[in-house]
Amino acid sequence: MLLAIDFGISNTDIIVNDGKEYKFFSCPTNKKIDERFLEKIFSYIDISADKFSLIGVTGGKSSDLSDKYLNIKILKVNEVDAIAMGAKSIFKIKDGLPFIAVSAGTGTACIYNDNGVTTHLGGISVGGGTLQGLSKKLLNEDSSGILEKLSLAGNRKNLDSLIGEVVNDIGSLHPEVTASNFEKARYGDDHSDSDIAASLSNMVGEIIGTVSYLNALLMGVSEVFFIGRVGNLEVVRSGITDRLALANIKGNFDSQSGFGNALGVMFFLNKES
Question: Do residues 131 and 143 touch, judged by C-beta distance below 8 A?
Answer without folding.
Answer: no
